[in-house]
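Help! Submission page says 'invalid entity' but I think these are all valid:
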Amino acid sequence: MERTRLRDGFTLTFMLVTLEVLMEKRPFDIGLALERIEEAVRPWPKAALFQLAEEGYTSTFEQLLACIISIRTYDEVTLPVSRTLFARARLPAEVAQLSWEELDGLISPSTFHERKAHQILAIAQQVDAQFGATLPGDRDVLLSFAGVGPKCANLVLGVACGTPVISVDVHVHRVTGRWGYIKASTPEKALSALEAKLPEQYWIDINRLLVPFGKHICTGNRPRCSTCPVLEMCKQVGVTAHR
Ligand code: SF4
């Protein structure tokens, strides 16, 4: 009887210690985390704008048009739609000469294509008249166009121009919050928090890496924590159920 009690007490203590060790998190190392995530997302498609840049669509103008097409639209749609448009017209003067009907038809699989066709046409005409063939990588110029917000402008500046800027989308916001790396209630606040904390060398890459990571591993519902490469340092903030 006494021996059983001793053994049960020992087993319980052993289990608690094991649990504690398992729950102990190492301090968050952003460099190491992104290195591991780079490896983990290798099998999955790249985020649309990065993929298009790899295919040679690297100009500020092309990236801007692709970004507008991508708004509220899946990457699986953005990619073929952008390729179709660029096969027909790539330069500002070429796009400016399209009729609204033709442009709308070219981008029609994209969400809100009618409004986007008006925006793209207006941008192409303005760029052609003001800058000719080359749209400069200037944040204020990009933000002056109707339909272009800070997220789009930053993404374009990062991908097309290599300007160190952070683009915070739903994935970047959710994942960095779950890590416990930042605490922000909106993507706008997340941007300020990341600008204050994230080393500049990762500003462009954070979007490139966390978009596929957020789509396939740290998913909105039931993230795949059990096989996640950063589990040992992630605080799993707000995660109540996972795989
Ligand atoms: S451990 Fe879970 S919550 Fe944390 S990054 Fe990985 S998948 Fe996301």
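Support: the input was valid. A stray whitespace character was the problem, and the output above is from the cleaned input. The chain has two domains: 26-41+166-227, 48-161.
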